[in-house]
Design a protein that fits this description.
Layout: H1 2-5, H2 13-18, E1 43-44, E2 53-54, H3 69-96, E3 99-106, H4 112-126, E4 132-138, H5 143-151, E5 155-159, H6 168-175, H7 179-219, E6 244-249, E7 266-272, H8 279-282, H9 284-289, E8 292-296, H10 308-318, E9 323-326, H11 335-343, H12 348-370
Parallel strand pairs: 3-6, 3-7, 4-5, 4-6, 7-8, 8-9
Antiparallel strand pairs: 1-2
Length: 374
């Protein structure tokens, strides 16, 4: 995992890849984590061959040459703790300004950017007044950001260099450069002005009511205190619907982005039918952390061996509350369901339950790795 393995720094990756005989991880009771000679830090996994190696059965879920499991866990907690503070600030800011932030995660080549281009065009047609912005994450080039801009949405490219994921601080910096950020603050000022106007309006009515009441007693006449005018209904958005949408296209990677909270409302895992239906079992942390799985490129189903129902069953074995949409960004099939999911009003209680269920699914995945009870 990139928190400790060195792929997020300039550490010695060659040593990490090769391993060292003297850098064996310490075993922990109940974890069945035992290093074998010639396989530093690895456990021999039970399987048909009896010779398979598993480097993720310890409590840390990863083996790093030179670090024992306890030190690995402490390092991960320190690094992720700092990131989570940035993520909490992002989330609070997004929620306060009605920004629906979605973190799109997948393997390289799953069709994330093509899906975003199709989504931008469709949203512009369906909800022309809805501001949309995109943060593009890649190790190098601005190719994807240029595609997004050509599709008609503002985009900020974030190149991570040797890093394999976006982090919350990167999102903070990128969002501040998007017009979406200015729109959010303009809406805040408008809301404050409307609130002040409503307060002044209420005060005027109170004054009129007091004047009429005094007039009644002074002249001995009875007056019905009814407003002689009605307010025209004001068109407002339903509660908890987005005032703007921020798409965060993460670096193509089904491992590291699972652990890095960006402050998003939800992770959306995209799996194309060209990848194999067992991806959720191979990369359980990502699908456990996701709120929605999009099965993409379904237009290719006649040409590939891919069992959609089996894939969904595998994904829900990892995360029982996972929502699923089948979609083709190329033909547009399923795109309406995706747009509905983006735009629909959220129930805060249901959303919180969904987040807790995702966290529970992730913890169970960790327990299965370390040999604990699920």
């Amino acid at each position: 995992m990139c928190v400790v393995c060195g792929c997020n720094s300039t550490g010695d990756r060659q040593n990490a890849a090769q391993g060292h005989e003297g850098a064996q991880a310490h075993g922990h009771s109940g974890s069945q984590f035992h290093a074998q000679p010639g396989a530093a830090g690895a456990a021999v996994a039970s399987g048909a061959s009896g010779e398979d190696l598993h480097y993720g059965l310890g409590p840390a879920g990863v083996t790093v040459p030179g670090l024992d499991q306890g030190r690995t866990i402490k390092l991960e907690q320190d690094v992720l703790g700092e990131n989570n503070r940035h993520a909490a600030a992002n989330r609070q800011h997004f929620m306060a300004h009605g920004v629906r932030a979605l973190n799109l995660v997948s393997s390289p080549g799953s069709g994330k950017t093509t899906l975003l281009c199709a989504s931008i065009a469709a949203l512009r047609e369906r909800m022309p007044g809805l501001p949309v912005g995109v943060i593009e994450g890649d190790q190098q080039t601005a190719n994807d950001a240029e595609r997004i801009r050509a599709a008609g949405a503002p985009a900020i490219q974030v190149n991570t260099g040797k890093g394999c994921h976006l982090d919350a601080a990167m999102v903070t910096a990128a969002f501040g450069r998007l017009p979406l950020h200015d729109h959010a603050h303009e809406h805040e000022h408008e809301h404050e002005h409307e609130h002040e106007h409503e307060h002044e309006h209420e005060h005027e009515h109170e004054h009129e009511h007091e004047h009429g009441h005094h007039h009644e007693h002074g002249h001995g006449h009875h007056h019905d205190h009814k407003h002689e005018h009605e307010h025209a209904p004001v068109a407002t958005k339903a509660p908890n619907t987005p005032r703007s949408v921020l798409f965060i296209e993460n670096v193509g990677n089904l491992v590291c982005p699972a652990l890095w909270d960006l402050g998003e409302e939800a992770k959306v895992a995209i799996l194309s039918v060209t990848e194999g239906e067992d991806k959720p079992l191979k990369y359980p942390d990502m699908f456990a952390a996701a709120r929605l799985m999009i099965v993409n490129k379904i237009d290719l189903l006649p040409y590939v061996q891919f069992d959609v129902e089996q894939c969904i069953a595998y994904a829900r074995r990892v995360n029982p509350s996972l929502e699923v949409i089948r979609l083709s960004a190329t033909t547009g099939e399923g795109l309406d369901a995706w747009l509905d999911w983006i735009a629909r009003a959220r129930d805060p209680i249901a959303e919180r339950i969904g987040m807790l269920e995702s966290e529970l699914a992730a913890l169970r995945a960790q327990q299965r790795r370390s040999g604990g009870a699920a």
